[in-house]
């Protein structure tokens, strides 16, 4: 910490895009010299310190290890990462606003630290909404050609407004539920913020709140320039039992709870379990794409009749039951509420959702393999339930890697025109192989660290699976 400089932390769940945002704020391309490391596995394991390369900007950015991983617990994230020393904190989220974000915001309020809620990867989220709407319009047989063309012309604007409205309503509701004051939400993407910082304009890049964010952060930090006075907290007495429980939780040891026979029977009835059918659950962190995957498995377009609800906010709050529309497939799919939200805790997710009654369970993850996934796998092992680890949104992840690689090649002045063209031709193949390798290595390591056997990982995307099923 240096007097005369502003020290900014970017914190949030692993996989939310912290490292990319640090790079964008500093005007540095991902995966170049002096850039914060990015990856499709958890790359940030220690706090990274990144001074701004522009001497006119006395800012130092800190890339904080992601909460919600196997090694970092939500409840002690703020203190463990020393977030109380910063001039301002950006609370970054990608798919959902979670208990981790609330915990950070509450601690920022106690310490009088300016906090900024930032939604990252907004361009990807809007593109997903746009594609979903376009698919629905193109398959709507009630529209004539002119009506279809007219609606397709406005599909991007509609997607942007829907994304803004849903994100802000979701954050507002969560802040209110937890007794926190309402505040602005900044919607950004890496490429747009990078262009704003560099003073560039690139055709095809979607700009949202990027231009305002940095100025607001610096302005709030200047107002708070004096460090907070130390305020001692009252000592909390702990019995031996509570101390042991705390130590167990810190070491990742959770209580093993078995349902009673009555609870088991009640769950079968609640889920309308039918002999002669296969009952398949899709579980995982909120925002990992469970609802879309169920729709794809059933050959149903998102946001059409009988589809599982998808959204940019947490839409699954009760278990959804979706029989396969094809009578030759005696399968019933269950869309399970996402773990890691404000209402569903990781450690009791398996029992609370009655996952012990299913014939097979798909554990779906998007950005990172987390403690939630490990907890589900461990419980499935106890119950002898077949499990399948599935990585969703693979097309988006590969496209991100491809763009990052292409940006680096195009800015590499050591390459001549032919070398550059040659490398750009193979960039998709390189991105695919890197994605496969990093994902499988990450899952293999996490399974080993958790004392679980290695198993296959299936890499999928909604559109491709939908096409295969159809």
TrEMBL record:
Residues 4-216, 276-470 form the IRG-type G domain. It comes from the Eukaryota. InterPro entries: G_IRG_dom (IPR030385), Immunity-related_GTPase-like (IPR007743), IRG (IPR051515), P-loop_NTPase (IPR027417). Keywords: GTP-binding, Hydrolase, Nucleotide-binding. Pfam families: IIGP. Coiled coil: none annotated. One of its GO terms (cellular component) is membrane. SUPFAM superfamilies: P-loop containing nucleoside triphosphate hydrolases. One of its GO terms (molecular function) is GTP binding. Belongs to the TRAFAC class dynamin-like GTPase superfamily. IRG family. This is P-loop containing nucleoside triphosphate hydrolase protein. The lineage of its organism: Eukaryota, Fungi, Dikarya, Basidiomycota, Agaricomycotina.
């Amino acid at each position: 910490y240096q007097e005369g400089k502003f020290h900014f932390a970017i914190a949030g769940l692993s996989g939310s895009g912290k490292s990319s945002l640090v790079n964008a704020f500093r005007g540095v391309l991902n995966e170049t010299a002096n850039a914060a490391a990015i990856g499709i596995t958890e790359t940030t394991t220690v706090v990274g310190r990144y001074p701004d390369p522009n001497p006119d900007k006395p800012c130092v950015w800190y890339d904080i290890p992601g909460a919600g991983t196997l090694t970092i617990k939500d409840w002690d994230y703020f203190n463990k990462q020393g977030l109380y020393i910063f001039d301002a904190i950006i609370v970054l989220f990608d798919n959902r606003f979670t208990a981790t974000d609330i915990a950070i915001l509450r601690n920022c309020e106690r310490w009088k630290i300016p906090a900024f809620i930032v939604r990252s990867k907004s361009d990807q989220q809007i593109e997903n909404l746009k594609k979903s709407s376009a698919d629905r319009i193109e398959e709507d047989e009630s529209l004539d050609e002119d009506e279809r063309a007219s609606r397709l012309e406005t599909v991007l604007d509609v997607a942007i407004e829907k994304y803004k409205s849903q994100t802000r309503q979701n954050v507002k509701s969560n802040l209110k539920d937890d007794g926190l004051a309402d505040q602005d939400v900044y919607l950004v993407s890496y490429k747009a913020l990078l262009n704003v910082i560099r003073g560039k304009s690139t055709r095809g890049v979607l700009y949202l709140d990027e231009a305002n964010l940095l100025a607001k952060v610096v302005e709030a930090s200047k107002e708070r320039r004096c460090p907070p006075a130390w305020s001692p907290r009252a000592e909390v007495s702990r019995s031996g039992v509570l101390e042991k429980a705390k130590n167990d939780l810190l070491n990742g040891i959770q209580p093993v709870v078995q349902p009673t026979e009555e609870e088991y029977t009640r769950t079968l009835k609640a889920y309308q379990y039918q002999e002669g059918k296969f009952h398949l659950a899709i579980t995982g962190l909120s925002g990992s794409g469970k609802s879309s995957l169920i729709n794809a498995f059933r050959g149903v377009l998102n946001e059409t009749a009988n589809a599982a609800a998808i959204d940019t906010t947490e839409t699954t709050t009760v278990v959804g039951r979706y029989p396969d529309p094809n009578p030759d497939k005696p399968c019933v799919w269950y869309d399970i509420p996402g773990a890691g939200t404000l209402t569903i805790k990781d450690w009791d997710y398996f029992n609370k959702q009655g996952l012990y009654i299913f014939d097979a369970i798909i554990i779906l993850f998007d950005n990172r393999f987390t403690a939630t996934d490990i907890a589900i796998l461990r419980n499935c092992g106890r119950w002898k339930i077949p499990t399948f680890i599935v990585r969703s949104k693979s097309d988006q992840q590969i496209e991100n890697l491809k763009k990052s690689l292409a940006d680096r090649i195009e800015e590499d002045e050591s390459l001549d025109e032919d070398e550059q063209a040659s490398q750009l031709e193979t960039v998709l193949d390189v991105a695919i192989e890197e994605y496969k390798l990093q994902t499988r290595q990450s899952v293999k390591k996490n399974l080993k660290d958790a004392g679980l056997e290695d198993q296959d990982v299936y890499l999928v995307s909604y559109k491709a699976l939908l096409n295969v099923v159809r």
